[in-house]
Known about the structure:
Blueprint (H helix, E strand, L loop, with lengths): L3 E5 L3 H13 L3 E5 L2 H8 L6 E5 L1 E2 L2 E2 L1 H10 L5 E5 L16 E6 L4 H12 L3 H5 L1
Parallel strand pairs: 1-2, 1-3, 3-6, 6-7
Antiparallel strand pairs: 4-5
Amino acid sequence: MTAKVLLLEDDSGVRFTFKMALQDAGYDVTAVASCAEAIAALSDISSGIMILDLKIGEEMSLPVADYAALMRPEIPVVYITGSRLFTGGELFGLSRNIRWVLHKPVNLADLVSMVDYVTGQSVTAEAS
């Protein structure tokens, strides 16, 4: 079964690049640009992983992780950020679903490896 990824990224170029890299690795990706879209899309997936950009425009995506922790506590969250906020690991204490934080610029191979690790599977290896 293909693992599902819910990707929240407000930069359209980065969102497209991340989506393509994850799809090429065999993941089923839903990519959205706003917190409201991410919350709405969360109701459509029953398992998988969420990848959230910390800053979406002028707002933070922490409410999305909080909502996921309540509604889908089994879905892990990986944060991606270019921000210097929470450099001491404080994000991990803000939501029980947060498993990892990647800092921009993100190497695409690292992103795919992180998704493989957090989901406990490697769809790339399974496809071989």
